[in-house]
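Internal ticket #5521
Category: modeling
Description: The requester needs a full-assembly model to guide mutagenesis choices. All entity lines are attached below as received. Residue total reported by intake: 596.
Assigned to: D.W.
Attached entities:
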Amino acid sequence: MARKQRERVGPGGAGVGYQGEPGAFSEEAVLLVFPGARAEPTRTFREIFEAVEAGRLDFGVVPLENSQGGSIADTYDLLANGAVTIVGEVVVRVDHALLGVPGARVQDVRRVLSHPQALTQCDEFLAGLGVEVIPMYDTAGAAKHVAEDGRPDQAAVAAERAAGVYGLEVLARRIQTHPDNRTRFAVIARAGDAETASGAPAVPARPLGKPDKTTIVFGTPHVPGALVRCLSIFAFRGLNLAKIESRPLGDRPWEYRFYLDVEAGADDEPLREALGELARVATDLRVLGSYPRWRGVP
Amino acid sequence: MARKQRERVGPGGAGVGYQGEPGAFSEEAVLLVFPGARAEPTRTFREIFEAVEAGRLDFGVVPLENSQGGSIADTYDLLANGAVTIVGEVVVRVDHALLGVPGARVQDVRRVLSHPQALTQCDEFLAGLGVEVIPMYDTAGAAKHVAEDGRPDQAAVAAERAAGVYGLEVLARRIQTHPDNRTRFAVIARAGDAETASGAPAVPARPLGKPDKTTIVFGTPHVPGALVRCLSIFAFRGLNLAKIESRPLGDRPWEYRFYLDVEAGADDEPLREALGELARVATDLRVLGSYPRWRGVP
């Protein structure tokens, strides 16, 4: 029993969910933050949130934005609706490779499978090949499919490490249009100090570091200049905004909620003050997490 | 020759591009703005922009945002990079239906095909059916595929009107989670007063109305509060912002460009002043178009 608990908690043996198949960039993100973790693949982002909320997983690692493709809308919606908190972030370099079956040649490839965003990121290379592109759920899943089919005229766009996982060969590397392509992920845990189903605390055994970045979400009242008023609260205190993102409310067309990444910890005095003031102006203000900025790949 | 020209220009016989297959919501958007238009389907958004820029099409109708799914990132990127101008907007109600082959029964459906966003918008209904969902390029394309396959255990999520186009039956109507689901489209034309390949002017023969909405794009310098400073220029003049959207610059990770919809015409004095001031603070300011607000479906 003690052993079972140890397997589920802490950076060593934590159960950490990611969306996709083994070999996905998300799995790499998990292993960067939790080198010894039990990385658990899921089919959808929602499954990660549900498993973390229910305590079946200690953490989840979910993509927030890609430096080319922009924000991942589903993640932002799940963060606003969920009972999880952001406890960390991690940035992964996204170098796409063209993977084919052993012996395949790049000039014989006719069909290329991958996630739509990966296909877009490699559009110049793929246009040069003159191939048909087939959208799939994720990059590693595309690699798996190409390996299972075994056809030399099919290839996948995926991480180079997916070649090792599925027994494929790298036909071309770093085929993305912008060489400096990165994805930023959030590390999520159950909100509050609740315990996981295994009886282990839902916060990392070894904290990920002192929080110096905070993500919040709020709505604005229906008056001209409302958003400016909300943002000025931060500008007035010299608090830098790393990111602003808007998402529709869904049930009210053309109304939005706003997500801000503020470069300060939620307990730092200027941000504590700012949040107090914002609560009087904004609607539905929530702190989604306060966590240490990622200090690996910038 | 005179006849050929008449076929290509004006709200009557204009060539208007949309992405998707006949029966798509985008085709409906085209016909709402240009009732007698020659609606031209394309496979990608990029093809519409290229055809409009080259003068092969008089107009394009491209989706900007959905009230549930949010902004369509590809369109925003193409608007920033393109040589087109927004001359109008149009809002379409998006009521999704489940379409099957004649005689199919909803309880026998095992696989449902559609665009990923349509599948997400109907997630509660589809979860209740317990079916496998298959992502495809677009809703009408999914309907076409179901019709061609002819299998009674396959269905598509698409507009009800796609049933008529492909000889399918409506198995269930208005299956989206949020009943009030809408998509807003931009009407684009070639920028400036250039002429189309057919010799016809690139602006509508009958103007779409007096501009009272303007879309701009700009970057911000790297100083705290830069975005607030840009937005205050509008707030100070009582100019309402209908929407703010951020998109990554791509070649510079974690830097963004911002898109604003301002509720005023670009020639209205307060906005002319605001744009003059913004040009001194922002980087790469461009007016993407000034056009009449859509007064059909709100």
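Resolution: model delivered.
Comment from assignee: Confidence is low (pLDDT under 50) at residues 1-12, 193-206 of chain A.
Ticket closed.
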